[in-house]
Amino acid sequence: MKVAKITTLLALVIVAIIFQLAGRGVSGQEQKQLDPKAWGSNHVGKPVPEYIQDDCLFCHRNNIGPTWQLDAHAKTMLEPEAAPELLGFIKSESRLDKFLKDLQFFIGSRNHIRLAKKIGYGRLALLNVRGDFSPDKKEIKWDGLDQISWDQDKFYNKCAGCHATAVDTGNKTYTSFSLDCYTCHGDTNIDHTKDTSLILLSKKRRNDAKVITSLCAQCHLREGKSRSTGLPYPNNFIAGDNLFQDFEVDFSKADDANLNPGDRHIYRNVRDVVLRGDESITCLNCHQVHGNATLRHRRILRVPICSECHAADSFKNAVKYKVHSPVCEY
Questions:
Q1: What is the pLDDT of residue 22?
Q2: Which of 215, 180, 191, 221 is nearest to 201 (CA)?
Q3: Are the beta carbons of 211 and 240 closer than 8 angstroms?
Q4: Would you tell me how many other CB atoms lie within 10 Å of the CB of residue 193?
Q5: Could you read off the pLDDT of 4-60 as tens digits, one per residue?
Q6: Structural contact between residues 266 and 274, judged by C-beta atoms closer than 8 angstroms
Q7: Are 130 and 147 in contact (CB under 8 A)?
């Protein structure tokens, strides 16, 4: 048993050394970093295009329809009737009673929730109260109950880019609440029904690491900001664009030991792809959006990036996955 463990450790050390040397030249100097803005194009400042919405389920109703509403991406905003358990928490706090009549959306649901109401087409106001769940989600602690009010700017200044679809930053409106197919598959060509290579992330078009990384990083690479608007989300990013032509990110956070493991893992993976040209691992190697989200994670080849969260000798969880965000205020 000890021999097996030593062999495993040696193998991991060798792989780690190979990965490290891959980023250096023959002379031992650090490899020159790539320009993350050098490829592709963007839709910065352009109108949000017309795109297919509910029609997607006409063809995908059997393989995607039954599970999509259970996916976290489809629950970044929830109508109260879709989340009766969350509504129960609201009703248990008497100081929120008079705001219940205006409540139209919950934002978030895993660890934190906020309340929102419509103030016009595609426009939301956010209640300045945050609810934080206990680890077992049986209790909730409210922050901001002393001075409750509706904030008409916070949703668009902080949240819209990752909680709604097709955000028009000029008019401060969105097309669809929560995230729909357009967020990840982009402005699709209707002819993809005959040729699936025409749609992003199909089995025939899932091999460009830079495109995939840009797509996922639009929301998951937090603490960046748009160069054109200053907002903490990109200006009219469409899947397939080069995110980093507009989205400015401090990649030194990839090595910041003070950053929580969850966000640091994302920074490292994105940095390795867009600055170092490593196309061996993208988000989709481990994470599966449709269906079982952990299946690929369990099958992935064990490489140094895994050791950020897992113990090298047993591959068991070595750190507790925590995420904190000053943008999201938790």
A1: 47
A2: 215
A3: yes
A4: 12
A5: 444 444 544 444 444 455 444 444 445 689 999 999 999 999 999 888 776 888 888
A6: no
A7: no
Q: End-to-end CA distance of the chain: give it in Å, rounded.
A: 44
What are the backbone angles phi and psi of residue 107, rounded to the nearest 5°?
-115, 125
Nearest alpha-carbon partner for 309 in 300, 319, 295: 319
Residue 211: other Cβ atoms inside 10 A: 22
pTM, whole model, 2 decimals? 0.83
Distance CA 38, CA 120 (A): 39
Handedness of CA 118, 119, 125, 129 (dihedral sign): negative
Cα 149 to Cα 104: distance, rounded to the nearest angstrom: 15
Q: What is the DSSP letter of 291?
A: S
Consecutive H or E run containing 219: helix 209-220
User: What count of other Cβ atoms lies within 10 Å of the Cβ of residue 47?
Assistant: 10
